[in-house]
Design brief:
The complex is a heterotrimer of chains A (about 280), B (about 290) and C (about 250). Helices cover about 75% and strands about 0% of the residues of chain A. Chain A is mainly α. In chain A, strands 1-2 form a two-stranded antiparallel ribbon. In chain A, helix 1 (about 5-40) crosses helix 11 (about 250-280), helix 3 packs antiparallel against helix 8 and helix 6 (about 135-160) packs across helix 8. With about 290 residues, chain B is an all-alpha fold. Chain B has a two-stranded antiparallel ribbon with strand order 1-2. In chain B, a hairpin with a 6-residue loop joins strand 1 (about 55) and strand 2. In chain B, helix 4 (about 100-115) packs across helix 6 (about 145-170) and helix 6 (about 145-170) packs antiparallel against helix 9. The radius of gyration of chain B is 23 Å and the shape is globular. Chain C is an alpha/beta fold. Chain C has a single domain (about 5-245), classed as P-loop containing nucleotide triphosphate hydrolases (Rossmann fold), CATH 3.40.50. Chain C has helices at about 45-50, 80-85, 100-110, 115-130, 135, 150-160, 180-190, 205-210, 230-235, 240-245, and strands at about 5-15, 15-30, 30-35, 60-70, 70, 85-90, 165-170, 195-200, 215-220, 220-230. The longest helix of chain C is centred in the middle third of the chain and has 14 residues, at about 115-130. The two termini of chain C are about 35 Å apart. Classes of the chains: A mainly alpha (about 280), B mainly alpha (about 290), C alpha/beta (about 250). Chains A and B meet through helix 1, helix 3, helix 4, helix 5 and helix 6 of A and helix 1, helix 3, helix 4, helix 5 and helix 6 of B.
Chain lengths: ~280, ~290, ~250
């Protein structure tokens, strides 16, 4: 083997690494570009605000958009309080014994369980066992169970990032544990929890598999009346029109993809900027 | 009054803690229960080792092997692409570029992770699949190969983010020590930093594998969904996740087919839980050093 | 001579490992008791036992009793105990809020000062007590984190004064400070003993000789000797004490 000059080998390797990075990043940009290029022409106020017509080949995506918003809203309303409280319990109250450690480990690992498995769970528990039927509420609960470990994990790491000494200082003044959490720990952990929550919302708005059997419908001719109705959902709608219906106009499919993509990316961007902002403002 | 409020708040927190713990147990026991009621009628070995997945024919056969092989094919394919690119990108981002470019690149990677899998699947269907078909002159572009490429993009953000954390948490004294001895930056990077960050990188790869294994929509849209054991990567395959998603709609609630899908869910759950557990062990190890 | 705190047969353990052994000691009302000794001699554990700050550590356990005004500290509600026995840490820990909020934080939470005007008066008086008022009166709304280390530590003292304690525990309060700030804090402590009982743990033997009325010497979890500061430093009874204060080890 030829021994390369270290300087030369460094240059070569750096080029390789740079190339790999470009390879990793370009597809995303390309993907976004393709969707915008083909979908932008479909986007109009009417597209967003009207019902689909003629076997969904004409008209808008209002019911799907609304359905997704409703499901996500309900899901986050359940998962956020429960998740944050559970994180507070695990981090601030639970004794550091074997059981707690097992629970923490289980929660971290649950975050990696495939979303379709949560779909199965939701189908079995919420749709069948609790007899909620295929409905907004069943889908929302399924998504909230799926997102619970993620919310707990991010909330816990935000709580952890508040220095332990703040708690000690507060406790040493005779302030109770809960008040210490409420007035010292939580205010400083909120930014992290908030960004984590926005990222979670972005993630669950794009999820299809968990709502496949719990909430989503192929086509509903009217808007949902209550949370016990089946709804159309944007990601599922995209799946349907791109695979199940032949001869769909291309710009409608791309338009739907564009709306979904923009929804998710905008929220992620907000979360990223919020994080940068809070980091700069951090007081310690 | 204040004391009472304190008490109530603490009780609520306690209950929420318990509730989330109950769900952890519930998910597992529920899948176990459904899975076992299936295995009672259809042996575990016949399920795992069976070569044929004909769930709805008269003499139904629930051999999950083709689906496992499908998942493994796609996963291996995706990892072959994603691991080198991901780790190299992590190195590039964490050690070579200046801070402001690093922040931009990291944000981009994070955005990449946010793209819904159904969008990835759709784009794969419209761009990659025809391309694969014409380049390799195949009867169909819906193959394990196309699926691997698309899934690689979904695994890359996971691998990059976690490896990057691991690389950056290497104490900078290591680096300074090596540089002080006259090693070039690249030598330091390759011999010292990469080695020290290895546990974290392995964890990143494991989590990437978990992500690919569990991916559903994109796989269902791109890999062709043929439930047979493939001979090469250029054939259509069907993964476990896609099977659940595609067939649950056709089943009669409570019959064998329905239960068999839960059994697949159980297998998936165990595999991913195991992978994550291993990753966690490596991450724990990385923290201590 | 009234004993404010009485410690009887106190032994402390972390994970069954004994860090403080069979301690008997009193703290007299309105005195400054200095506690000196090398690292790992159990000084800080001793201090944190007095206001039960070690309670959260699951590995910690103790035997023996501590009495505050003849009440066993285990019988006193832990929050009340900590209000009565204030504590200062080695590093100043201002909470991430304004100077004003740092001082009013605990009184508000504990609910014994609520009116705005009372709060204002209290802030001024405690800041005057630690001679910080003139330095910060124009920027009470500024984040406390922006102050210098010495100012932060004095703010922390003011914060403790605001909850009106009976005893104040100082855990090496000057270890991170420059000589001028240290001198200010020492001066402050001497002033404070008129109203409060003080226990001062310190690494700095000279500081103990300057400030404390009595000094206790700890070594390897045992109390070796306790006496009037003048006596202990001039004619220590035990050889270990002499070795330590003359700087032969530790």
């Amino acid at each position: 083997m030829i021994k390369l000059n270290p300087k030369l080998s460094q240059k070569f390797s750096y080029t390789l690494l740079c190339f790999a990075t470009i390879l990793a990043i370009t597809p995303v940009i390309l993907m976004v570009f393709i969707i915008i290029k083909n979908g932008a022409s479909a986007i109009s106020w009417e597209f967003l605000s009207s019902m689909p017509k003629d076997g969904m080949s004409v008209g808008g995506i209002l019911p799907a958009l609304l359905g997704t918003l409703l499901i996500v809203l309900c899901a986050i309303m359940v998962t956020l309080p429960v998740g944050v409280c559970a994180a507070i319990y695990l981090n601030e109250y639970a004794k550091n014994n074997m059981l707690t450690r097992i629970i923490k480990l289980a929660i971290v690992n649950l975050a990696g369980v495939p979303s379709v498995v949560y779909g199965l769970f939701g189908l079995g528990i919420f749709v069948m066992f609790l007899k909620l039927g295929v409905s907004i509420i069943a889908g929302a609960l399924t998504l909230s169970i799926m997102e619970l470990p993620v919310i707990i994990t991010t909330a816990r790491s935000s709580l952890d990032s508040v220095p332990y000494s703040f708690r000690e200082a507060s406790l040493s003044l005779g302030v109770s544990r809960w008040q210490t959490i409420r007035h010292v720990v939580l205010p400083n952990a909120i930014p992290g929890i908030l960004t984590g929550t926005i990222l979670s919302i972005a993630r669950i708005s794009g999820e299809t598999a968990p709502i496949l059997f719990t909430a989503a419908a192929f086509y509903v001719p009217h808007l949902p009346h209550s949370i016990f109705d089946q709804v159309m959902a944007l990601p599922y709608h995209l799946y349907i029109i791109s695979t199940q219906i032949p001869n769909m106009p291309k710009n409608i499919i791309y338009g739907t993809a564009l709306v979904l993509l923009m929804m998710v990316l905008t929220m992620s961007c907000i979360a990223i900027f919020a994080r940068i902002y809070f980091r700069k403002r951090r007081k310690w | 009054m204040k004391k009472v409020l304190n008490l109530i708040a603490e009780k609520i927190i306690f209950i929420c803690g318990i509730v989330s713990i109950i769900f952890v147990v519930l998910i597992f026991s529920f899948l176990l229960k459904e899975g076992f009621s299936f295995f009672k009628h259809f042996g575990v070995l016949k399920f795992i080792g069976g070569h044929f997945w004909y769930p709805s024919s008269d003499s139904a056969s629930f051999g999950v092997l083709p689906l496992i092989v499908g998942s493994v094919f796609v996963t291996i394919g995706a990892c072959t692409i994603a691991v080198p690119i991901g780790v190299m990108t992590a190195l590039f981002i964490s050690e070579i570029v200046p801070k402001y470019i690093r922040d931009i690149l990291k944000s981009l990677v994070e955005l990449m992770a946010a793209i819904p899998s159904v969008v990835v699947g759709f784009i794969g269907m419209t761009t990659l699949v025809p391309l694969v078909k014409s380049i390799f002159n195949l009867p169909t572009g819906l193959t394990a190969f196309s699926g691997s490429i698309m899934l690689a993009f979904m695994a890359i953000p996971t691998i990059v983010t976690i490896s990057e954390d691991a690389i950056r948490s290497v104490p900078y004294q290591y680096k300074q020590g090596a540089l002080a001895l006259g090693a070039t930056k690249w030598q330091t990077l390759r011999r010292i930093i990469l080695k020290a960050a290895m546990p974290g990188i392995i964890a990143a790869i494991m989590l990437g594998i978990g992500r690919v294994m569990g991916e559903t929509m994109a796989v269902m849209m791109i890999t062709g969904n043929a439930a047979h054991i493939p001979h090469s990567i250029f054939e259509p395959v069907r993964t476990m996740t896609a099977t659940i998603a595609a067939e649950m709609g056709e089943t009669v609630k409570g019959d064998m087919h329905y239960k068999s899908l839960f059994a697949i869910g159980l297998v998936l759950f165990l595999i991913t839980f195991f992978i994550n557990f291993i990753a966690d062990l490596f991450l724990g190890k990385n923290k201590n050093t | 001579m009234v004993d404010k705190i009485k410690i009887e047969n106190l032994s402390c353990y972390y994970n069954k490992k004994c860090v403080l052994e069979f301690l008997n000691l009193n703290v007299v009302k309105n005195e400054i008791l200095g506690v000196i000794g090398p690292a790992n001699s159990g000084k800080t554990t001793f201090l944190r036992t007095l206001n039960r700050m070690n309670d959260f550590d699951a590995t910690y356990s103790k035997k023996g009793s501590v009495y505050l005004d003849d009440d066993d500290i285990l019988d006193i509600d832990v929050e009340t105990l900590r209000r009565r026995v204030g504590m200062l840490f080695a590093m100043p820990i201002p909470l991430p809020m304004s100077i004003y909020d740092n001082i009013t934080y605990a009184p508000k939470r504990l609910g014994f000062v609520t009116k705005k005007i009372d709060l204002d008066n209290m802030v001024e008086s405690v800041l005057r007590n630690v001679s910080l008022w003139d330095e910060v009166k124009d920027r009470l709304c500024v984040s406390a984190v922006k102050m210098s280390g010495g100012q932060q530590q004095r703010l922390c003292i003011a914060r403790v004064l605001a909850i009106n304690p009976e005893v104040i525990l100082f855990d090496e309060p000057c270890s991170g400070l420059d000589p001028i700030s240290t001198a200010k804090i020492e001066e402050l402590m001497i002033g404070l003993k008129e109203k409060y009982t003080i226990v001062l743990v310190t690494n700095n033997v000279k500081q103990a000789s300057r400030v404390s009325d009595r000094t206790a010497f700890f070594l390897m979890g045992k109390l070796i000797e306790v006496d009037k500061t003048g006596k202990l430093f001039v004619s220590p009874k035990k050889k270990e004490t002499e070795d330590y204060i003359t700087g032969r080890f530790g």
